[in-house]
Amino acid sequence: MSSNTLSEAEIQRRYYANSARSYNEWHDAEGGEHYLALSVLAAIVDHYGIQSVLDLGSGTGRAVAYLKHRCPGLKIVGIEPVQELREVGYQNGISQDELIEGNALKLDFSDGEFDIVCEFGVLHHVKTPGIMVAEMLRVAKKAIFISDANNFGQGSFLGRTFKQLLNVFGLWQWAYLAKTKGKGYTLSEGDGLAYSYSVFNDYRQIEKKCSRVSLLNTIDGRINLYRTASHVVLLGMKKQDKTTA
Question: How many Cβ atoms are within 10 Å of 131's Cβ, its own excluded?
């Protein structure tokens, strides 16, 4: 069956199933943007006395393994829908209770069940990222933590400026659809199926549920991260109900 006849979700699943053995080599490079983000998250866990973390789109369990090592005693659960990736994680010492099957668009957890809900490089693989962000906000008691792409900060100065202008006038998604010849996504050996995504797309949605939103560029970037940073970390500290906080 050709990729043209498969659903986008199935293309994505097959990519990760077929590349599971090479996943760590391709996606977990030491010193990369997500390792910097993980070190920031570990500091946040310590600073705020976080006791539980839910990681969405865990792959082979990079975040689970890292936080287990850095933060002994922390309860951490990773959600990963692709069995082949989970199997690699199990072979690397992660238990089946720590890396489980699940759907990030419909989490099987109650409201506020985890102190922090996080994701690392997953949202740009999701066709409806706003739904996943809403689930992160629902399940998180204290905060959400996002490490992902900012498409508007990628490329040359002229390229970035052009995309940002199109976005101002609400034309970027139409332009991207034309650029991808109607598919609305790209396919690459190193990243599989990916959509055009910016952390800033979900900023207003997050801001409504959070008392404070902090941003950090993890690759390049100047004072205006939206305009210049290709990858960004976002920490949203949720508004606390005074009767339960």
Answer: 13
Task: Report pLDDT digits (tens) over 123-146.
Answer: 999 999 999 999 999 999 999 999
In 3D space, the residue among 198, 193, 235, 201 whose CA is nearest the CA of residue 50 turns out to be 235
Block residue for tokens 């069995």: 83
Q: What does R_g of the chain's alpha carbons equal in angstroms?
A: 18
0.85 surpassed by pTM: yes
Q: How many CB atoms lie within 10 A of CB 151?
A: 22
Which tokens belong to 34?
A: 């997500």
pLDDT tens sequence across 71-108: 999 999 999 999 999 999 999 999 999 999 999 999 99
Q: Report, in this order, helix, strand and coil percent for the chain, each rounded to 5.
A: 45, 25, 35
Q: How many helices (H) and strands (E) does the chain have?
A: 10, 9
Domains and CATH numbers, the chain: 3-153+196-238 (3.40.50.150)
Identity of residue 25: E
Q: Name residues whose C-beta falls within 8 Å of residue 142's C-beta, 6 or more positions apart in sequence.
A: 48, 50, 115, 116, 237, 238, 240
Q: Cβ atoms within 10 A of the Cβ of 57, count?
A: 23
Cβ-contact 56, 118 below 8 angstroms = yes
**What's the CA gap between 34 and 31, in Å, rounded?**
8
Q: Please give the Cα distance from 152 to 227 (Å, whole number).
A: 6
